[in-house]
Design a protein that fits this description.
The chain is mainly alpha-helical and about 140 residues long. Helices cover about 85% and strands about 0% of the residues. The protein has one domain. It has 5 helices and no strands.
């Protein structure tokens, strides 16, 4: 059971870290070159579209399965993986979702882009570190 769980947690954590990485190195740099109106419209639309069953299964499943893994193995790497996976989730709910909502409600790109990107770097590193830790657990 624990090998299957490690495999599933690793797969989902890797997919989630990959999504964050793709946003960091491709999507946001491409969007950065757009005018303010295009930036806002695209970012708001992406935030709407990304909330779908497939993404939500990965987004919530990665930290959940990593934390569930603690039932079978409480190694230092498993504990670190669970903490980092949950931390990436907390960053999303505490920082990114309010920023996304503010932008959708008429907020400015200037108030959005820098804090979103700053915290996204932290979230990407956190999610990637969680993936590496669960992979080696």
């Amino acid at each position: 059971m624990d090998e299957l769980l490690v495999g599933a947690a690793s797969a989902l954590a890797g997919l989630l870290a990959g999504v964050h990485f793709a946003f960091l190195v491709a999507f946001m740099p491409a969007l950065h070159d757009m005018d303010d109106d295009t930036f806002t419209r695209v970012m708001v639309r992406v935030c709407e579209v990304i909330v779908n069953p497939v993404f939500m299964a990965v987004f919530l499943g990665a930290p959940f399965l990593t934390a569930l893994l603690l039932v079978w193995q409480r190694t230092p790497l498993t504990i670190v993986a669970a903490i980092l996976g949950l931390l990436a989730l907390v960053i999303t709910f505490a920082v990114h979702l309010p920023l996304n909502d503010a932008l959708a409600d008429g907020g400015t790109r200037q108030a959005f882009e820098t804090p979103w990107l700053t915290w996204h770097v932290i979230r990407t590193l956190t999610a990637t570190a969680s993936f590496v830790a669960v992979l080696n657990a």
